[in-house]
Amino acid sequence: MATHILLVDDDALLRRSLAFHLEQAGYRLSTAATAEDALAINRQDPSSLVILDIGLPGMDGLDALKQFQSEFHVPVIFLTARRRELDEVVGMELGADDYITKPFDVDVLLAHVNAVLRRVTMSRGTPIKPTTLQVGDILIDPTAHTTQIAGKSMELSPREFNLLYTLVLNAGRVLSVDDLLARVWGAEFIGQPQVVYVHIRWLREKIEPDPNRPQRIISVRGVGYKLVARGG
To answer: Which has the closest alpha carbon to 89: 105, 81, 78?
Structure first.
């Protein structure tokens, strides 16, 4: 059965064009002009991937993303035409799986779609042990997607959670930036080390008593990062 993609954009010509090319590539498409319609469609016919424009009438893409995440746990690729929107997506780290800036070539979109679906398939195909993992005072449950630091529940974005989970699985071992990119973001992000630097900073701001003097996520100069036990 063909993979179902939900395309949400208020530009009718763009919707028709992208739907045509995605169908030619073998996907099954549903389209919507508003986030409200898209959510209703997804309740009736769940999708495997949502391509979501940020600048929608009514409910915008940022609010829609929260709905798609909380209700469906479906991967989302953002489409954005304005730099301000892109800054907001990156700055808020809302958990979108990818983003593409307009205008873009259809081949670029197809490459992003294939990459996200491949990552999702690989992650679902890799069995996760249904046990809570503990390193020092960090408690992380991969099945419930919950984290506790020193007994306190911690709200992490999906990407922050995956980054911390990867570090916990390899506690005490140094992981290079490329290792983290490949395991958390996918091999196509290799060569973009700033992605790791930014997310490490955000993670430290949430889990470290003093982010400027980290005691859990330790930098190993010229090599990478490692997670060490603190407390417990």
So the answer is: 78
One-letter identity of residue 222 = G
Q: Is residue 222 part of a domain?
A: yes
C-alpha dist (Å) from residue 16 to 31, 47, 158:
9, 18, 31
Residues 6+ apart with CB under 8 A from 78: 52, 53, 54, 61, 65, 89, 96, 98, 99, 100
Q: What CA–CA distance (Å, rounded) separates 138 from 231?
A: 9
Whole-number Å distance between alpha carbons of 178 and 192: 9
DSSP tag of 3: P
CA distances from 57 to 25, 35, 61, 81, 198 (A): 29, 8, 9, 14, 31
- Residue 181 lies in domain: 133-227
71-108 pLDDT, tens per residue? Answer: 888 999 988 876 665 555 554 456 677 878 888 888 88
Counted domains in the chain: 2
Q: What confidence tier does 153 reach under pLDDT thresholds 50, 70, 90?
A: very high
CA angle 59, 161, 133 (to 5 degrees): 145
Helices (H), 2-60: 12-24, 35-44
Residues 6+ apart with CB under 8 A from 167: 175, 217, 225, 226, 227
Percent of the chain with pLDDT strictly greater than 70: 87
Residue 70: inside a domain? yes
CATH (domain of 205): 1.10.10.10
Within this chain, do residues 98 and 197 fall inside the same structural domain, yes or no? no
